[in-house]
Design brief:
alpha/beta, Rossmann fold, 4-stranded parallel beta sheet, 21 helices, elongated
Amino acid sequence: MRTYTLSCFMCGQENSEDLTNTYCTACGGVLTVRYHGSSPAIQYPLETVATDELRTQPTELRKLHNLSRRYGIEIWGKLEYQNPSGCFKDRGSFIEVQKALELNRDAICLASTGNMAASVAMYACYYNIPCYVFVPENTAEGKLAQASIYNATVLRIKGDFSACEQLCKAFARSGNYYLAGDYVFREEGQKSVSYEILHQQEHDFDAVLVPVGCGTNFGAIHKGYHEALQAGLTKKIPALICVQPETSSPVVEGIFKREKVIKPSVTTMATAVAAADPIDFHKVQKGIEETDGRAFTVTESDILESLQEMAVSEGIFTEPACALPLAALKKEQRWFTGKRCLLMLTGTGLKDTGVVARNVLPSPVLPNDVAQVIDFIESGYPQLQRESFGKPRDTVLTQIRFSSDKQERFEDYLNRIGKKGKTLTPRETEAIQTLVFNDDSDLNFPLKVTDYTILMRKNGLVAASVLADMGGTELETSHEGVGPLDAVLGAMDKLTAVVFPVSLVDHALEVLSPGTNALVVASITLEHNGNQAQGKAASPDVIEAGLHAWIKAFAVLHKRYAQ
């Protein structure tokens, strides 16, 4: 006999789980599980509750000592990134997969921005049920890799999460498939974190800060505390604090308007909480009202700053969404002073390393020379890397100090690019500085290109002629290729063969900004008798970038082996 009822959170209508596990069949509201009695043991909506063989131990409840001292607040972290797939979603995924098996579904499908995809795929793989994952086209590669390694069928869909969700729902209706997601049975799994906190804590928390997207995890935490309160496991529920990015905050906006808000679209670097339609808004609203909680927003700059601060101060590298609680605590410090606060750290930073890569100055590849290493360290670049995370590049890059010879090369770059009428963006300036750091200080160039011409042929090929100076001797070669760069590189191959034989191994182009006058970084790899060297150069002109990159790679090989 079932010990629970599947009810509509909005209208109270009883629903059959054989017909729906998503929305009420009467009013379309979200669903909740109501148990027929309280119990000191956590209750799940399953006929038989299996042992979770993947999540074998609780996640750590850790005091954050350095942050506590800095802000004069007792700050703890619930390290949910310690779950098997690297995020809190595993609690809900285990219950959803068990429910899919109990309902005899042929497969499980879901729409996800990445974390849930990896988590459900992991459990589905372990319990041998096929899994179909619908993800937006811009989902982080790390999260897709996780889902793929667990044998899920990953379907990248054009559009945002809402488009994926609608398509996945249609797919679920097309067969005997269990539709997983931020729905009622996931909430039942995720509520276990509240019981875990109560078991681990030495004293009650005054506030729990939760990053919020759809609101399901927030609602689950409140439900877990509420059930524990009814069972006599605690005497109080802490104030539950909802935190969202300013640029993706329909829940916070809805809390102040006292009605659900749906946005056409949202955008934030904290992609794990980027939800335009917060499915469980009303559960968040109830949780805030019943616990005297709050709803706060933080800026993208706040997120970056707190992401780095958590890593540097506590050795904890999380994904951007986990920076929201700390950012809110700092921003609303007066409200939290004197309180015992818990930050929900929901996912590992390894889920989305791209955010870090985009906001830190890159580390250049230095020559194998200790003098060059010392020169790099004394330039101030490493210190700027540490201090400039997330800050505007145009103010950071002016602080880099080059040695005299490299400063001369840097200025030569700027002069050549300026003559072409090109104004560099901060990212492009950063790329030029990195190229200069990479150059050997004492590299001599045995030849210099003085001119080149490009001619389109009627046969579809392109002809290139290159004129160069070699110690006062003028050299000229030509070559036909399938495109301008192919033709020029072929001509360079013939030209340098006269001086020193090399062969082209690889070449690549990176366009650093949109528009027709974008800066292009060309990479050329040359080989001589099995020994390789790479040259990199930048220019608004693709051909010129390729030529300079070839000359650099050629100069390195010539210096090493032309004896």
